[in-house]
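[job 4471] stage=fold_predict status=RUNNING
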Amino acid sequence: YFFRHFSSSGCVTLSKEAIVMRVFFCNGNKLKLGLALICLLVFGIIATALWPQGILSAASEQQRLVPIYEVETDKPLVAISFDASWGAEHTEDILDTLDEYGVKGTFFLVNIWLEDYPEMAAQIAERGHEIGLHSTTHPHFTELSEEQILSELSDNYAMIQEVTGYTPTLFRPPFGDYNNQVVELVNASGYDCIQWSVDKMV
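[job 4471] inference complete, writing structure tokens
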């Protein structure tokens, strides 16, 4: 057992007398316990120093499921998408601009938006754009139960079909909020989970 003494200069010094006296008064059980604790401490330090950096983080990263952020292609292409959750004051201008340049986009629609702007949603489909799921109530999906997630997906799917006649195959989580459960349930429901690689909001 070691006593650490601090000198007036702030440096750590070891007192030989203190060491000798402390060992002298220890019984066998305490000495064994102390040695065992020291061995464990030394082993922990060595294991930490020798353990390859990043193995644990790499293993956990391999288990983490992620949505589709981008698709590799050798062509000079971009995929433009829009999330519609509230407001439609710019939607028609966006559609006109896309038509002007012969561009098709993907619109991820929420039920609360579909309820307020059904004609605009129908126009998106009529102009040949892709429509994807974006939830029923725009919640944070990582805070939902499995049952709630499936309900958000199925209700959103039903309203998109009812309003636009379009059969969606893509889903974008509101706020870009996802975890393994979200990705697994979305994929199991027959949809591709889509994120973005460039955000015009940033």
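[job 4471] summary: Confidence is low (pLDDT under 50) at residues 1-26, 54-60.
[job 4471] exit 0
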